[in-house]
């Protein structure tokens, strides 16, 4: 597992003459036609909180594509290619109407499926307008999020449900968020300026919690994180899980199970180590090769306070660069890998096994897609739309360690 | 005229798999040696208001070239390549002297035609200085503007006069402006950050006024714009005109004639629909492929107030992005086409006939230049320097509609 | 010496059709593997003031390479490749420890020579950690500066001493600075945004002082600079010197000797014309092809005031762009040459002989390095580490001019 390659002794480890390094394009390029981009396009991705799609169009950038999201006065959400097919003006400046969105320049009106309903400057309001079609993508709303499907129409899967989000108690509501919170713990960065893979690598990496979030920076989360766990990684359902078992002083142990689902979905258990199944699901949505947006939906007590992670009383956005140096967190660790890490110089070791499993699964499913198949986790049968989420903090009597 | 191409029905208009699009390089590249750049270089272009060229050098960027404009203490304006021919220091930091501009680094002195008059650090103040020549372009001043000619010296035309600017009444003066006002209606953007063609397309597009400036955003200009006109386009002189006839309630009609002259000149009638010939001329001067500067000269009442277009009491620069979304204007429509529009995906229709005529004329004249000829509108005979401007609002008894 | 090429008379010096120009890559490219970059890598360069390397890591960029400089709690300075060899997180966010720097992400600990001392998330804290080596460069401290050597380990020379810095009087101290002061005379620009060569050209150019710093801008330094000197250039030791002799009114003359040492070192005499040897040494350290940092060490009276050049009572950073136009200095002259000057259009003349000598020496030594030799000024014998600095203002009775 340890593939460190030392330099020849004569070089004495000097940085002089080290070879040029490069990113892994397979795992980081997400645009149309790229292997990872095409894999990603077979799944639904959240693009906005439903509550944020009101009476003004919104810019959305996802998988390298710039789009415009809107909600017509009839309540239907629509996601269109932003350049009006007539002369290219952005529909971001379009006007919301009962039947769709109208371009500001010459008034062409498009519905949520891109049909052109009016061309007011043309003879007879557009005799040939039924031939015109603004490029569009399907959207659906669930859990307070707007999801979009950017793949081939004939491959559109059902929008998944997650068992841990299905039964909302009367005193609960969904906290549904797109943008912010991903790596800073607060709302200061809507779009995170590095590859989605850096965050994705973080999910199946339980060890960094011991260092980055505990011994290194003081206890950032719960003090139980400072205990070094016994970790096991395993493929499960359509993703990777780890079980991190910590032995407690009272003779109990807690098994913290975390899940990553293809291709960019995670469910992390409560960071205060509250017992039971995880109450949320998150997505690491690539904006382009070097930016992503975090989306999260979580069951929360109705009317509860919002939250932001604080270190020494300050949110990430309130800290100076020197304070970030003194108390680094996920953002510093991940942005410190660069806009896109140089994977050729990585030295993956025993504790990186979860990451290797994730990457292997991603690459394998890219091949499945390239060969015309359907990647794991894609479901066409509405009766099978519910996904089981294994994540949670599970307490029990300690077993003997093997 | 309607060349909309629908996708195959199976695709259902999806944005997935749409082909890559591109700009039209012929109409948008303006640097030296490009077809449009060479065409543009056969005409004079305004580069500054005369009143702004005082005792400090000014940076000018036009047609992709960075230059320095100055006025020597003797009153002569000069336009030089900015990098001193000696060691490349910018003459922007040069000192104005009676005979020219002196480089700050080693004191070489150049006159408005680039002759080197002094080299103070050289033996005998530069024994060979008559061999030195700083690259220069000719300038002339008229109507309160400094015009420059960037073409081949042997092809330099006479600087045109415009008949609507020739007879200044005693109570009138020229409002002469370079920078600002182009697409925002105020002074907040000296340089406009998109292709000159977006603004040029706007000139022979009378229909957008009905939508963008009237029904869409409330009445931005005069309420007569809200009436849908009968429009005719025609080639005239060395450009394209349109006649937009609106029938009024009192049995009259108003014929609003707007002109575009090769290659980037327009004269728009009074936007309050005042009767008579247009009182101004404007230029859309390309800075580079994706920026332009608007220049305008207008006859105005002497000592009158300046002006800035206001929407709900606010100038463009005072509005928020949300307000721009709610009340878009020319800037939003044109910048919304991108830095350089993707012309391959345009769908030009009946109402775009004026734009097609302009572009056809531009492309045809590029060929004329490429074959060694002189493009239309270029005049070498000083006796024929006056250009007739047809633009204006002309009222008359309504004719029967054909 | 005068190689001005005039255009053909028919062109009349027009800027139209002038050929495209280019930089000299040989003298301006400093990255690994470039001729100038490899030459530079054979010498020690200052990267920080020792006093600035405290308990937080610092980013250093030099010769196109991004590095991290730190001082372990034991007081040893280290300069490492910044991306942790494990997963690429920047050691800028690492923690200083007694034995080295620990990566924030998974806690790998490296000493100042890149040895990996701990891998806390690995079995047995890293059974194979002795195979891991973080790329590193050697550093040494002297005169209050941290010097780094970025070349091949087997070619590492001794760190030079300078005779004018060796005997510090009891009432003196070193003013040791890296960043700022280079071309602005104040502290407002830590990194200067143009090629190191522009500043390097400035050193052996005594004539610009007459123009830029005297007649042009008023007397910026001492009024003696306004006297035009007799100048002689000569190769000396391992660099170029000039002697600039000014005849004074009292029958004396002052010989102002300035030195440039390979490859980027200068010693300029006191600008108030104080008699005697220069009291300082400066380096023009390339950050990358289009940025540099100035480093200086100077003997100063202990506890004296700091200094910043002022023009009309203002430091460079306090002046407006219009004030910079009216009173340009080194920054304006040099930044006015662009990020990297276009050397193909230079016209070097008699007064540029010093620059030509510098460039010739640089290019010749690049060849020496390319052929496996050691460039001049590189010393491997510690007994010969002291470099003689000739610079100074030397007064004497005036000789008859030849």
Secondary structure layout:
Three copies of one chain form a homotrimer.
Chain A: H1 25-28, H2 35-40, E1 44-49, E2 58-62, E3 65-71, E4 77-80, E5 95-97, E6 100-102, E7 109-110, E8 116-118, E9 136-137, E10 139-142, E11 145-149, E12 161-162, H3 163-166, E13 172-178, H4 196-203, H5 207-215, E14 230-236, E15 239-247, E16 252-261, E17 265-267, E18 276-277, E19 280-288, E20 291-301, H6 321-326, H7 330-335, H8 353-370, E21 386-387, E22 392-397
Parallel strand pairs in A: 12-21
Antiparallel strand pairs in A: 1-11, 2-3, 3-4, 4-9, 5-6, 6-7, 7-8, 10-11, 13-20, 14-15, 15-16, 16-17, 16-22, 17-19, 18-22, 19-20
Task: Summarize the structure in short.
The structure is a homotrimer of 402-residue chains. With 402 residues, chain A is α+β, with helices and mostly antiparallel strands. The first copy, chain A, has 8 helices and 22 strands.
Helix content of chain A: 10-25%
CA-based shape of chain A: globular
The topology string of helices and strands of chain A comes to HHEEEEEEEEEEEEHEHHEEEEEEEHHHEE
Low-confidence stretches of chain A: 1-10
What is the percentage of strand-forming residues of chain A?
A: 25-35%
C-alpha-based Rg of chain A, rounded:
23 Å
How would you name the oligomeric state of the polypeptide chains in this document?
homotrimer
What's the pLDDT, averaged over the residues of chain A? 92
The number of helical elements of chain A comes to: 8
What is the number of strand segments of chain A? 22
Structural class of chain A: alpha+beta
Largest sheet of chain A: 9 strands, antiparallel
Gap between N and C termini of chain A: 21 Å
């Amino acid at each position: 597992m340890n593939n460190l390659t030392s330099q020849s002794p004569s070089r004495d480890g000097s940085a002089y003459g080290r070879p040029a390094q490069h990113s892994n394009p397979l795992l980081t390029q997400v645009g149309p036609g790229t292997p990872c981009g095409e894999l990603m396009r077979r799944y639904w991705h959240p693009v906005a909180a439903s509550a944020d799609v009101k009476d003004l169009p919104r810019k959305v950038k996802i998988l390298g594509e710039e789009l415009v999201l809107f909600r017509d006065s009839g309540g239907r959400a629509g996601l269109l290619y932003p350049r009006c097919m007539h002369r290219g003006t952005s529909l971001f400046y379009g006007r919301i109407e009962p039947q769709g969105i109208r371009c500001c320049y010459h008034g062409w009106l498009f519905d949520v499926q891109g049909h052109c309903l009016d061309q007011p400057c043309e003879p007879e309001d557009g005799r040939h307008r039924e031939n015109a079609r603004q490029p569009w993508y399907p959207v659906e709303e669930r859990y307070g999020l707007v999801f979009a499907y950017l793949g081939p129409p004939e491959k559109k899967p059902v929008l998944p449900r997650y068992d841990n989000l299905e039964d909302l108690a009367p005193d609960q509501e969904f906290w549904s968020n797109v943008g912010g919170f991903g790596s800073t713990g607060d709302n200061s960065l809507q779009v995170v300026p590095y590859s989605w893979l850096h965050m994705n690598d973080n999910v199946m990496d339980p060890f960094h919690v011991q260092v980055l979030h505990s011994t290194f920076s003081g206890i950032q989360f719960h003090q139980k994180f400072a205990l070094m766990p016994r970790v096991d990684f395993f493929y499960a359902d359509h993703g990777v899980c780890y079980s991190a078992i910590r032995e407690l002083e009272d003779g109990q142990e807690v098994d913290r199970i975390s899940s990553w689902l293809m291709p960019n979905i995670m469910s992390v258990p409560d960071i205060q180590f509250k017992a039971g199944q995880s109450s949320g699901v998150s997505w690491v949505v690539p904006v382009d090769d070097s930016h992503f947006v975090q989306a999260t939906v979580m069951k929360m007590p109705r009317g509860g306070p919002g939250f932001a992670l604080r270190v020494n009383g300050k949110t990430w956005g309130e800290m100076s660069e020197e304070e970030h140096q003194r108390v680094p967190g996920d953002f510093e660790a991940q942005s410190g890998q660069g806009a896109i890490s140089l994977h050729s110089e990585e030295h993956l070791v025993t504790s990186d096994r979860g990451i290797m499993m994730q990457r292997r699964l991603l690459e394998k499913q890219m091949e499945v897609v390239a060969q015309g198949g359907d990647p794991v986790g894609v479901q066409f049968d509405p009766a099978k739309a519910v996904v089981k989420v294994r994540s949670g903090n599970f307490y029990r009597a300690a077993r003997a360690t093997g």
